[in-house]
Design brief:
Blueprint lengths: L1 H11 L3 H26 L9 H27 L3 H30 L6 H17 L11 H8 L1 H19 L7
Helix pairs in contact: 1-2, 2-3, 2-4, 4-5, 5-6, 5-7
Length: 179
């Protein structure tokens, strides 16, 4: 939500501070997605075996340091649009590959349509992201690739929430906990 709010503010009031809030919130959103992905896929949230808790702490520290380094580089060293885009795309690709693998594996195991949703959501996000990467001038002076990218992220967000609910229900039913 913060990334959408700061983006909305930036796109209505283009100032240095609103631009930074937009970029840093978007970066935090992408990095949080990357942070959450291995925690869910590899169940680092579980306390057994004990090594999972150590891995979770290391992963948390790694992601915090990556974000601090990213923001520091853009703030202190150089405001670099290409670097920012490359960093976000790299983090996005990594989590997309992991979720696609998880989706295939989970669907094969559970044989439930919702288990394939992460892979389908990844496909949607990749198509929407192509609007961001393959920019074009505004149509009618109003609708450009970036605005369509933002619009293209609404559907997958709702769908993703529905997946998380189904996934949690599966977890609470104990089917995954017994595996």
């Amino acid at each position: 939500m913060a990334s959408w709010i700061f983006s909305m503010i930036f796109h209505t009031r283009d100032f240095d501070v609103t631009e930074k809030l937009d970029y840093f919130a978007a970066g935090a959103s992408v990095l949080y997605g990357l942070y959450y992905t291995p925690i869910r896929i590899f169940r680092l949230d579980q306390s057994t075996p004990p090594v999972k808790q150590t891995l979770l702490r290391l992963w948390t520290l790694t992601c915090l340091l990556l974000y601090i380094g990213h923001v520091s580089y853009l703030t202190v060293w150089k405001w670099d649009y290409n670097y920012n885009m490359a960093a976000n795309v790299a983090a996005g690709i990594l989590q997309n590959v992991l979720w696609s693998w998880f989706s295939i594996r989970n669907y094969q195991r559970l044989k439930k349509p919702w288990a394939a949703w992460p892979g389908l959501i990844v496909a949607w996000i990749v198509m929407a992201m192509s609007l961001e990467l393959l920019d074009f001038p505004p149509i009618g002076g109003m609708i450009d690739a970036h605005s369509l990218w933002h619009l293209g992220t609404v559907g997958p967000t709702i769908w993703w929430y529905n997946f998380l609910v189904k996934d949690a229900q599966q977890d609470m039913a104990g089917e995954r906990l017994q595996a």
